[in-house]
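Hello support,

Our group uses your service weekly, and this is the first time we've seen a run hang past the timeout. The protein is FAD-binding protein. I'm not sure whether the cause is the sequence or the server load. Input pasted verbatim:
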Amino acid sequence: MNNRYDVVIAGAGPAGGQCARDLAARGYDVVVLETESEDEFPRQSNKSTAGTFPSMMASFGIPDDVVMQYTDSVVLESPTDHYVREQPGAVLEFADFKRFLVEDSRADGAEYRFDARVTAPIMEDGQIVGVRYNGDEEVYGEIVIDATGPAAPLAKKLDVVDLKRENHAIGIEYEFEGIDIDRPGFADLHDTMMLRLDHEIAPGGYSWIFHTGDDTAKVGLCYIQNGSHERYARDDFSIDDYLSHWLETDPRFADAERLEGKQHRGSAHIQPPETMHTDRFMAIGDTVPSVDPLWGEGINKCMQSGRVAAVTADSCLKHGDTEPTAENLEVYDTLWRRDVAPNQRKRLLMTKLLYLASNERYDELMADLNRLDDDTLAKANRGDVRAITKLLGLDDVPLLASFAKQEFGLAFP
Ligand SMILES: Cc1cc2nc3c(=O)[nH]c(=O)nc-3n(C[C@H](O)[C@H](O)[C@H](O)COP(=O)(O)OP(=O)(O)OC[C@H]3O[C@@H](n4cnc5c(N)ncnc54)[C@H](O)[C@@H]3O)c2cc1C
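Update from on-call engineer: The timeout came from a worker crash unrelated to the input. Re-ran successfully.
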């Protein structure tokens, strides 16, 4: 077996799969090591609701046959109100999507080793030159990429990431049939992705219903286990208890039945990354926290980070005489901050502010969104300070004070 490659990638998720696709298409020798077995792939890593937008589908040439349902709008719900925004999207079958990335990159020559659990970097003169997997097996590369999501075995050992417990977001989801998709008193959820802000259901986070056709939908929730969660959480309630509680109390689920084997769960970190590379090494996808802090959109960000890592690797390897030193890989961080997650810090602060707001404030937010033009939300979501201040009012002073206290240790009288 060939044991030397241009690029070794750990993890066949959206980030690793896309990076392999781009590198193989440019003619590089690339191998992807994936811990799961090929027969069942993806099993535990089949974790995502996989709601996405046409820009992702078009940029990465994703075929229609991995789409479960095209959607026309996004709905935001608060405890007693909602707001509808026309916005085309697509809910993918995440497992089919992951398998597509594997097959498509293989068609261009990428190699995959399944049942290959990466554990540690192989170091020479202080630089990574390969990876160790399944205990004592080894593979070598000019450049090594960690795309294992939050597991991050290489990035952690190389001190490239420092994923913090207080920024850990967890999510759980089931697929159901028999849901009342157009229940009087609620928004019509046909062909929509709905996100609900309600601390009763997802304290310090949000829950969702993504329509997947007829009376079926993906139903889940997530939250960050930080101060906002503590403030609104119930004693001894696990994330599963919150989902059960929602299912028992929301009339839309009165006749809903869980679809066998359709359960997804996973985690990510919501924090701004510091560096994302070192000599001969880049960390991509959720290994460096790439998930959109506000709405949890991770797939597009991960694919984009895989793409900019491939561009960076190409810029070093194509000349043959440009060593992939940390200095020469710096362009990856620059492209990430410019193209993958611009305004990440501002958006993160806005996210924390949003999750700190009360249920009553969520109801007011829906009323404000219904009053303001559609652009305000889109701009605020991009971190535009003027749009954010438009959404804040005088009544928000106590909220801002408690936010400042939580974030910066500032106390207002
Ligand atoms: C419940 C939930 C719902 C979500 N919903 C959405 C959504 O609707 N839209 C959206 O855009 N995003 C969503 N996300 C986020 C999105 O799924 C992630 O951002 C995305 O999957 C991350 O891709 P990745 O390639 O970085 O990592 P992953 O998808 O985590 O892939 C990592 C791969 O590495 C493998 N691996 C792990 N450890 C090792 C190891 N040691 N050695 C070898 N291989 C290893 C894993 O098996 C996996 O195949 C959701 C996430 C969760 C948890």
